[in-house]
Design a protein that fits this description.
By secondary structure, the protein is mainly alpha-helical. It has one domain (3-105). The protein is built from five helices and no strands. It has helices at 3-16, 20-35, 48-53, 60-72, 79-105. Helix 1 packs antiparallel against helix 4 (60-72). The longest helix is centred in the last third of the chain and has 27 residues, at 79-105.
């Protein structure tokens, strides 16, 4: 991911990290990872089961960043994990656009 996209992503994460719908999608992705016993190369010792049970708004940016890495990775071939990551990213994009529309249009 290039630096400009990465920065836009961080801004969106910070703006939306308290949203319950986004947290639900994060949990679903983490559940899928735990079910598949998937361990990212960057952090193989991280317990995603524990993060799923105790997810907080501060975890959302971490999970979303991981989702971007999973979605872009050519090494990860499991379709369920890829789909969960892509669904999370699309949820963030949709919610962010909706929130911006509400802010600017007043509804």
């Amino acid at each position: 991911m290039d630096e400009k996209k990465n920065q836009e992503f961080r801004v969106k994460c910070e703006t939306m990290k308290d949203d319950p719908g986004l947290m639900k999608e994060c949990r679903m992705m983490l559940d899928t990872m735990a079910e598949k016993k998937f361990e990212p190369e960057e952090d193989p010792k991280q317990s995603y089961v524990n993060m799923t049970e105790n997810i907080s708004a501060d975890d959302v940016p971490k999970v979303l960043e991981m989702a971007f890495k999973i979605a872009k990775s050519e090494k990860i071939e499991d379709p369920e994990i890829k789909i969960a990551a892509e669904r999370l990213i699309k949820t963030l994009e949709h919610m962010y656009k909706k929130k911006r529309k509400e802010m600017f249009c007043g509804f």
